[in-house]
Amino acid sequence: MENNMYLPFRSKIINIKPHTDIDYTFRMEFTGDVKPGQFFEVSIPKYGEAPISVNEIGTDYVDLTIRKVGKVTDVIHTFYPGQYLFMRGPYGNGFDVNIYKDKELIVAAGGTGLAPVKGIIDYFSNHIDSIKKFSLICGFKSSSDILFKESFKQWNPKIETTVTVDKEEEGYDGNVGLITEYVKKLEIENIREANVIVVGPPIMMKFTVQEFINKGIKEENIWVSYERKMCCGIGKCGHCKINDTYICLEGPVFNYIKAKELLD
Amino acid sequence: MGFSLNLTEFKNIFEELKKEYTVYAPKLFKNKGTYSDTNMVRYDEIHDIEDIEFDQKSHYSPKEVILPITQTLFYFTEDEVIEPKFNDKKILIFLRSCDIHAVKRLDEIYLKNGGEDYYYRRLREKVKFVLMQCEKSFENCFCVSMNTNETKDYSLFIKRKGDILFIEVKEEEFLSYLHNGKSEEVSPSFIEKNEVTANVPKDLDISIFKSPIWEEYASRCIACGRCNTVCGTCGCFTMQDIFYKDNVNTGERRRVWASCQVDGFTTMAGGHEFRKDKGDRMRFKVMHKIYDFNKRFGYHMCVGCGRCDDACPEYISFSNCVNKLNKVVKGEI
Q1: For this UniProt entry, which segments traverse the membrane (chain B) (predicted)?
Q2: Binding site residues of A for [2Fe-2S] cluster, as ranges?
Q3: Are residues A158 and A182 in the same domain?
Q4: Which of the residues A10, A178, A183, B57 has an alpha carbon 20 to 30 A from that of B293?
Q5: How far is CA A107 from CA A261, B4, B230, in A?
Q6: How big is the CA angle at A247 (ends A241 and A248), to the nearest 5 degrees?
Q7: Domain carrying residue A131
Q8: Nearest to B292 among A48, A227, A244 (CB)
């Protein structure tokens, strides 16, 4: 049994919080070192494994926000608190909070892309004095796709928050339009120093990063987190490799200087 | 130390070896080839020295011995995972110089990249190599271009000439088996020239991604993945869970070989897929073999065995592609 990294451990579901019809946050028993942006391989025997990023870390738990979108996650969504999932990890590099301290930080997240960066937002929301200014822009398909509504309430006064949905809706009076439009409007105090984190679907990341570069943000101050198919999480299965980089080992969080070289 | 033996003498030794080792070697399967009336040469467990195919290149590489096509990682019940029992009998593999080099590439990924793979190491540490002589360079081989034509990494070397076997023993433990053999100077002679040369461009970088040379593969490649399957250095796998019909709460998790050329290799839950274009997949594979593996580990992944060219039903040639790349880099096309 020594060093068999493929053997998962059992983890109890402490509670489940639904955000939308298809996005639930599962609070899982876990003690050990883990960083925001890292991921676990979560599995149910018979159905398979899926890499899921961590969005909140407690002393004896981790929160995993899981969208019902595939073979494994469809089944996970039928589980109840008190039942168990299998997990192995955490894997990947995760975000390093020290990079962003004492500077201005902007986080732009699209859809479930908010999950891997939520740990960073929580951290600075709780340590708001350790950062100069924090702006958050989140885009969702529609108002019913908005995740972490309760967290927004906690973040909002401290963090300058913009939530937008793709299209006009009846009875919705919030912001409408793509993230890029709100990036254009965003006021950045120190454009040469500000750090930016962009996470979301590939197309959203591409155009959002471009918009920040157009505004004058330095490439080396932009960070992204990539999502890829992964079967092992430990540099063997080859599915996530791009050029000489293994997303599971060197990523999923990359500085844009590196990320822009990662062409699939 | 070298010996010569006749077939009968060697058969006795082989019987002794089989007590300690499971022996794998290329074997001829009559009429099992891809096309009608063709044969197949592939690896199998060998019980008789006469079953070893010395004269032809095996269509498949020996990687399946240490990286099985499907490998059970563990069995599960509803709340428990159990590792499969492990056979600790030692393994001898008969293989050629390029194949020994190919195993080194698998070692790099499975033993060093991101930590040790438990299942690979267990099999790998039981393995000893028996080098086979290449009497001639086979069709599509370009080992000399890839510097894999020679090796010192073997325990035994065996060459067969009619009914006489010549054996070089590099590892002492095997001397005890050969005490009856006639002492003789034996050492391998290596291929020094192939008909095919692959000129791996030195100044390659990712700007080549934009080159139109990949376009032809978009229409030629049919994404069958045979090139990956026969390659001695391709080690990608996909995780697969199965359950038993009679008791759906028990089953196993296993890994199976995967191919970067086949649909679905990058498909994530929700259906998003990278490299939909088969030209991009060819580019991904070729660049891994002659550019980015080298960037990461300091030597090229491709060993020049040419099996991908042998296997391709669309007659796509890897070495041709490499030579074309070289011309693009040099500005000749």
Answers
A1: none
A2: 232, 237, 240, 248
A3: yes
A4: B57
A5: 22, 73, 46
A6: 110
A7: 97-225
A8: A244
Nearest to B121 by CA among B66, B160, B54, B83: B66
A167 close to A142: Cβ distance less than 8 angstroms: yes
Q: What are A248-263's pLDDT values in tens digits?
A: 999 999 999 999 999 9
Mean pLDDT in residue range A209-216: 96
pLDDT tens for B179-215 read: 777 899 999 999 999 999 999 999 899 999 999 999 9
Residue numbers in A near B284 (CB within 8 A): 264
A16: domain CATH number is 2.40.30.10
CB B50 within 8 A of CB B6: no
* Residue B146, domain extent: 2-183
> Shortest Cα distance from B302 to chain A (angstroms)?
15
- Verify whether the Cβ–Cβ distance A7 to B275 is below 8 Å: no
The number of angstroms, rounded, from the C-alpha of A143 to the middle of its chain's C-alpha atoms is 19
**A18 found inside a domain:** yes
Query: Residue B251: its chain A contacts at CB < 8 A?
Result: 45-46
Task: Give the model's pLDDT for residue B180.
Answer: 76
- Has residue A135 been placed in a domain? yes
Check CB contact of A98 with chain B, cutoff 8 Å.
Answer: no
Q: Is A131 exposed, middle or buried (0-12, 13-18, 19+ CB in 10 A)?
A: buried
A76 and A146 part of one domain? no
Q: Are residues B41 and B171 in the same domain?
A: yes
**Minimum Cα–Cα distance from B243: chain A residue:** A46
**Closest to B109 (Cβ–Cβ): which among A236, A239, A243?**
A236
- pLDDT > 90? residue A32: yes
Residues in A touching B295 (Cβ below 8 Å) = 243-244
What pLDDT was estimated at residue A252?
97
The answer to whether the beta carbons of residues B57 and B41 sit under 8 Å apart is: yes
Whether the bond into A90 is cis, omega within 30 of 0: yes
Give the pTM: 0.95
pLDDT class for A2, splitting at 50, 70, 90? Answer: low
Residues B220 and B138 in one domain: no
Spatial neighbors of B272 by CB under 8 A, at least 6 apart, are A201, A202
- Using CA atoms, how far apart are residues B254 and B107, in angstroms rounded to an integer? 20
Residue B229 domain flag: yes
Q: What is the DSSP string of B15-28?
A: HHHHHHEEEEEEEE
In chain A, residues 111-170 whose CB comes closer than 8 Å to chain B = none
Mean per-residue pLDDT over chain B, rounded = 95
The answer to whether the beta carbons of residues B149 and B121 sit under 8 Å apart is no
CA distance B124 to chain A (A): 15
CB contact under 8 A, A50 and B81: no
Contact status, residue B110 vs residue B68, Cβ threshold 8 Å: no
Report the pLDDT value the prediction gives residue B6, as an integer from 0 to 100. Answer: 92
- Collect all residues of chain B within an 8 Å Cβ-Cβ radius of residue A227: 268
